[in-house]
Amino acid sequence: xxKIFCIAIAGSxxxxxxxxxxxxxxxxxxxxxxxxxxTPTPTDGWMLGTTKYKQAYCLRQTNQFALNxxxxxxxxxxxxxxxxxxYPTVSGTYHIVAFKVDSTTTYPGKSIGANDVIxxxxxxxxxxxxxxxxxxxxxxxxxxxxxxxxGKIKIEVPQVSVVSAADTLKITGTMIxx
Length: 178
What we know:
The protein is mainly beta and 178 residues long. It is built from one helix and eleven strands. A hairpin with a 2-residue loop joins β9 (143-149) and β10 (152-163). It is globular, with a radius of gyration of 32 Å. Residues 1-22 and 27-35 have low confidence and may be disordered.
C-alpha cells in the first residue's frame, strides 16, 4: 500500500511539475519621432537662409521708425532691419507680423500695431540692379525680444519666415544699435 501511495505522490509531483510549452511571437513597436530643428540666434549679426552675416553697424532710420543693420564685411551691402510704429521706449516683446502697405504710405512702420514689429532682410540681386528684400510673413506667431540699455535698442529675432517676390527663406539674428 505504501508503494502505491509513493507512486501516486511521485506521479502527482511529476504531473504538477510539468508545464505546457507555449510559443510567443515577438511584437515589434515602431515609434516615429518628428524633430523640429531651429537655427540658434546669432548674437553678432544675422542669418538669412543659410548665409551668416556679421553686423558692421546698426542705426536708427528715423523717417521709418526702423533699426537698420548692415554687414559691410562680405564685400556687398546686406541688411537686416526691424520696423516699428514708433521706437520702443521700454524693453519687452514685440509680435512679428507680416508686411502690409496701407493706403496712405508705401513703406512699413505706419500700418502696424504698437506692440508689433516687421522684420526684413535684404541682399543684392544676382542679376540686374537693386536688392532682393525679404519681409516677415507673420506665419509663426513668434515674438522678438527688445531690450533698451542706455537708450540703445537691442532686438533678438527668433527664426521666422521671410518672403520676397521670388521665394521664402528663414531669418534669425540680433540687432544692436551703435
